[in-house]
Amino acid sequence: MLDDRERRALERLEHELASADPLLARRMRRALPTWRRWATWRVLLAAVGVTLAVGLVVLGLAGQALLVLVILSWPLVAHMRAQRPRGDPAE
What we know:
The protein is mainly α. It is 87% helix and 0% strand. Pfam families: DUF3040.
């Protein structure tokens, strides 16, 4: 969010605006919780997005590992099929 220096500058600006226009100050105080809610939702949506991205990467890596295992085991499967007799009912 905001660091201390930015927060102090924002509070100073809010104070100056409040002293110049009380109606604007009242509206700003009412809108502050709304902005905090929006910030909370943005952080939550960002966390969900990161979680989905990590999940997709893990799923992709698992798929690649499975594909590598299938490719590496193919010579063994071909050798085992070549060893079977031609009339074997297991085919």
